[in-house]
Every structure is written in C-alpha cells, then in structure tokens.
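Write out the 3D structure for:
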Amino acid sequence: MAERTLGTLPVSAIGLGCMNLSHAYGETPAPEDAARLLNRALDLGVTLLDTAALYGGGANERLLGEAVRHRRDSFVLASKCVLDLADGKRILDGSPAAIARSLDGALARLRTDHIDLYYLHRLDPNVPIEESVGALARAREAGKIGAIGLSEMSAATIERAHAVHPIAAVQSEYSPMVRNPEVAVLDTCRRLGIGFVAFSPVARGMLAGAVRAADYVAGDIRLAMPRFVEPNLAHNLRAVAAFEALADEIGCTPGQLSLGWVLAQGDTVVPIPGTRSIAHLEENLGAAGLVLDPDMITRINAIFAPGAIRGARYPAGAQAQVGTELLPDEELAAG
C-alpha cells in the first residue's frame, strides 16, 4: 500500500482504527476473531494501528498487546491518554501525573516499552495544554513514546501545543459528512507540517451502508448522537442515498467513495476506518487505489453542503470535551 507521513512517521495511506473491537458499538467480537482481523490488516499492508486507554477501559490496548505483539516491528502503534474509564465512568484528566500513570498502564497492557505515537485524547480545560504536552515531551525524552499527537483540539490549541514540542499528528472526525476540520484545523496542520488523521471517515457507518434506521444494539454510542436518531436520521439518510448513487455510478462501494474523498483532501491526510469484519476491512483498503476526478469531488461536496446534515455530532456532555471548531450552522444551533 502507498505510504503517507505523519510528522516523520511513514504509515500506510489507510490505517486501522481499533476502537470498535472493544468499545462503542455494543456487541464486540470474540478475542480470537478480533486478533484474526488485526493480523489480516497487517498482512494487507496496514502499518498504523490506533487505540486508546478509553476504549473498553484498557481492553483494546490489551487486545493489541496479545494479538499483534509478535509483529511489533511491522506497524506504527498509536494510543491516547487523558480520557479514560474508571468504575465504568468516563474521566478527563490531563495533568502530568495522570498522563504518566496512563502511559505506564498503556505500556503494560500493550506489552511494549515504546508507543510510536501518543495522543492527548482531549483537552482538559483545567490543565494548560503546555503542561500536558510537557509531560509527553518528558516521556519522549525517556524513550517511552516516539511522537506526540493531539485529538479533537482547536487550531489555537494546536498552535500552543506545537510551540512546546513539535506535534506529529492531529486526529479529528472527518468525512464527506463531517467537515469541522475544514474551519481551521486542516490549514493549521498544513502550515505547521503536522499530519492529519481522520477518524470515522465513513461517518460511523452511515456512509458505508451500515445505517438504515435507528435500530442499534444496546450500548451503541450512536443511540445518543442526535444525527443518528430521529427526528434527524430520516432527513440525513436522504443525503446518504444521493451519495450512494454516486458510488454506484463509478462502480465502487459507498465506504470506498467516502475513503477516496478523504484521501483526496491531501497527501498528509490518513483515514483510519474501523471494522469488525475482514470482508469490510478488505473493502476499505480497496479505496487506496481509488482516484476521484475534480467533478466527482464537487458533486460529493454539493450533497453535503452546509446545512445538509441535521443534528449534532455528539450529545452535549461529550461535545463539551471537543475543541475542534464548530461549523457556522452548528454555532447557530448551539446558540
């Protein structure tokens, strides 16, 4: 597979988001099935695996430590701190002491002494970003991590963080349907030489044919996301249907079209779709060779013009922890 660069880290043009193997969408696969998928991804040339302390309260990191530790030299390992689960509750702590504890726990769960790319999962408003980044800079000096990343943070915060220590990658949700990074973050990353990692590049399955109704299983986080439930879902699925028609027109799947669109946004943009299905994994990676002409990009953008999608990305509590800038229509709704 072709490579792209995050800071100085060469990675496959499409990585693998590992979250849904342990977290967020209700049912999770058996450990042996998850291990089979992870190894198949590596077999197919994926060299970026993305996890976090939050995912399953450490379960996802343990899964990677058990499933692919024997292939540790063949991929870039990315994980995250600051967000975590404690007694089933989500906690946010960006203090240097908490970061150090989280990192040591992650290294133990991942069965390694080094994490290649370590992100601050969210900004803790009670801790200056300079202190949190400073903690990661010290971890890098100690050899525990290789590069520093940020997730769902504003352009202004990225600037402040980068002034303390070079940032290799910024991660935010990005797809034809979710365009928040275009407000300011993408331009900031390009100017500072920071790679951009797009999570949920098929819009949590909505752009991959996986959402037809709000019939999610218990524990699925989409049950609390306004754009994935009524009264917004039926409206949003009309835009999705138009998008799917474009995929049919050029002979690819909707998921591949969405990934192709993300890849077309610049050679430092790396999508990390997640899946629990090897068939879907192979389909996703097929997008690496998809080249979209400018007319197709324009037609996709027209489907998802401002205001086309109704409902917030997150419920209010989770949105309060997101620093990435709102789009103008989201600002009006919030106001």
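DSSP finds twelve helices and twelve strands in the chain.
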